[in-house]
Amino acid sequence: MMLFKSTLLLLGVGFAAAQSISSGCTSALVSIAGSPDSACLNPSALVQLVLTNSSTSVVPVIDTWLTGLCALGPCSNSSLQAVFTNLTAGCPTELQALGLPTNNSNSVTYLQAAYPTIRQVLCLKDTSANELCATEDLTQVQNVTGTLTTSNIASVVGEISAGNQSIPQSVTCGNCSKAAYTIASKNFPDLISGTKNETQATCGSSFTDGQTPSGIEETASNSTSTSGSGSGSGNTGGAARLDVSSLNIGLSMVIAVSSVFAFFA
Questions:
Q1: In what ranges is there compositional bias, type Low complexity (predicted)?
Q2: Which domain, by its residues, includes 26?
Q3: Domain annotation covers residue 199
Q4: How many other C-beta atoms are found inside a 10 Å radius of the C-beta of residue 164?
Q5: Does residue 174 form part of some domain?
Q6: Could you tell me the mean pLDDT of each successive run of 10 residues in the chain, 265 residues long?
Q7: Bridge partners of 124?
């Protein structure tokens, strides 16, 4: 539930910030998108958002992006560092608009530690519906809020963040969210334990029992990424020692690195 809300919020903010990027950032993104280091993030699929009509749902494009991303091997730590370094150098103003640090040497460590868990969650699939959990949840949100488009997703997310628009209970407490919570609680136990009481009050005690619901499977490819070199990011070693700000920075950077590519053209 926490990861889904955070991801939705950052997608909205990311789209809003990306639509007004500077020429310097545009040049940096063109370079990054063509680099082998970014291939593991499947940036080319997000470029299709540029061609998406402002009144057309972005959910199918996001689904295509995630489906391709999940089929690729995980980014290596060196690839994440290269993308992070080039992005922070080329787009400092845009990253600041997202509330992200541009000169914190610890940020890339947070990104590398949080990335495997975030990728794991984004690649969850509901086999009964035969679609990714992210697609399923965004569709359910869209059914309540109206079509999510490139022109309104930031404002819709703002309404959700302000409490003026509710996320359906089927999303916040559904099987997909429970699976995401289970993954997060295993990889970040110190962090997630602080949300247990609140989560149980909202979704019931069974939501936090540590079990993955039937019909939810992980689709993230575990094959070694061919982009970059160095150790891969397919494990969560050391991640449990991160605090809330560390996970938020890592999550923010993954979303920023991905969503901002959509508007570089």
A1: 219-228
A2: 22-221+248-264
A3: yes
A4: 8
A5: yes
A6: 52 56 78 86 71 77 89 92 86 74 73 86 93 90 87 76 78 90 87 84 92 94 51 39 45 46 36
A7: 218
